[in-house]
Every structure is written in C-alpha cells, then in structure tokens.
Amino acid sequence: MDKLLTYLQEKTGSQLTPEDVRMMHPLVLAYIGDTIYDLFVRSYLILTQPTSVHKLHVKAISFVKAGAQSDTLHHIEGILTDEEQDIVRRGRNAKSATMPKNADAVEYRWATGFETLLGYLYLLGRQDRLLYIIGCILELDDKEDE
C-alpha cells in the first residue's frame, strides 16, 4: 500500500507531510481509513474463506459494520499509543452530517474513530504499525472462530 501512495504522490506532484496529515479533518482520515479496512477485510476473506461472492459480502459486512468496528477498537485500545488514542478521540468526536440507518450512534462514533486511526497511519506511511494493528485484529478473529 505504501507503494501506491508513493506512486500517487509522484504522479500528482503532491506530497503529504506528516504535519499535513495531522491537520486533516478526522472525517477525511476516516474516509480513507474505511477503504483501507474494507480492502483488508475483503482480501482476508478471499484468502481464508473460498466461497461465493454473496457469502463473502455477508461475512465482510460482519467485520465492517459500525458495531463490529467499535468492538474491534475496544479490543485493541490497550495496544494504542497516546498519539493513536488522540487520533481515535478526534475521529470519535468529529461531527458527521450523516449516520447509517442501521447503526447505533455511539458505535458509529467509535467506528469513525477506528477508521480515522487506520487512515492516519496509512497516510503517514506507518505501514509497520498499521500491519501490527491489523495482525491484532486477525488474532481476535481467530480466537472467535475457536
């Protein structure tokens, strides 16, 4: 993923500094974080659950819905740095103009914080940290399957 971001920055001539990323609105970070998490979940499911597209979609929803993201964030809170906790808080407190009809407001805000964190790490190029957090999420899923 870092090669994709590097490629786009070179192609557009637009570079993001760490300060640019820190100053971004939390909902912008959540916007890209949502995509990062969705790509991760879909890739994970394709690799681990060879089944129909419909069943993949249903399983993916179980990961990416607001309640599941909120739960995931609560499970990994203990491994987050102070900086990461601040980013989650910013995302959680951001005022969104819309909310999905099937989402609980509190869960949705926590899910937004989770997505904000993933977007933040991705745009800063902190791939190792992003992958570590994703690895912790995989461990949670493995434990639930037991």
Features:
Ribonuclease iii, N-terminal Endonuclease Domain, Chain A, globular, 8 helices, mainly alpha, 0% strand, 146 residues
Our Rg estimate from Cα atoms comes to 15 Å
Shape: globular
In total, the number of domains comes to: 1
Which architecture would the CATH scheme give at its second level?
Answer: Orthogonal Bundle
What is the CATH topology classification name?
Ribonuclease iii, N-terminal Endonuclease Domain, Chain A
Gap from first CA to last CA: 30 Å
Tally of strands: 0
- Strand proportion: under 5%
Mean pLDDT: 90
Helical residue percent band: over 70%
In CATH, what is the class? Mainly Alpha
CATH homologous superfamily name? Ribonuclease III domain
Q: Unreliable runs, pLDDT <50, ≥5 residues? A: none
User: What characterizes the major β-sheet?
Assistant: none
The tally of helices reads 8
SSE topology string:
HHHHHHHH
Secondary-structure-based class equals: mainly alpha
